[in-house]
Amino acid sequence: MPSTFKYVPLVLALLLPAGVPSAFADDKAAAAAVTNEDGKYFDAEGSPTFKIAEDGTVDWYTYSGYRRFNSECFVCHGADGAGSSFAPVLADSLKVLTYGEFLQIVAEGRKNLTAGKESVMPSFGNNKNVYCYLDDIYVYLRARAVGDLPRGRPAKKEEKPQAAKDHETSCMGG
């Protein structure tokens, strides 16, 4: 994915109509990494994805997503995205959400009313600890959703690429 288009999916996601169900179904084949730009992997559609080596080494962004998820999201969504009594199993949700839908939900939040029970996902669009790492969280959950990443902290990771350092400095305002 060319550098000039890195933020296009976020803009498109914010323009999607809320509540429109997706016909998307993710699996190992769709999630396969086909390109790599500065240590960040993309699938055939240009969406961020993960790369796990045969020895279990995960790419930096998947590892970072694990860390960010466990610092900001697990309180509601449970360890490793396994869900809780008041938030869904994200490892299942990511099987049917597109990248754009994921971005929209996290940035804007949403309310659901199912069987008389209301659930609320708050907006994280202004939380830099989430917003600056949305792709990382997405690729981590995507790896969990398609079954390529087991529960728990990844044992091995790639080194943090300079592009990740630069993005973090820019996004966090440092």
UniProtKB/TrEMBL annotation:
Keyword Metal-binding on entry: yes
Sorted UniProt keywords: Heme, Iron, Metal-binding, Signal
Gene3D superfamilies, sorted: Cytochrome c-like domain
Annotated spans, Disordered: 151-174
GO molecular function annotation: electron transfer activity; heme binding; metal ion binding
Bias (Basic and acidic residues): 155-174
Domain (Cytochrome c) ranges: 60-145
InterPro entries assigned: C-typ_cyt_methanol_metab-rel (IPR022411), Cyt_c-like_dom (IPR009056), Cyt_c-like_dom_sf (IPR036909)
Signal peptide start-end: 1-25
Top-level taxon: Bacteria
Name used for this protein in its record: C-type cytochrome, methanol metabolism-related
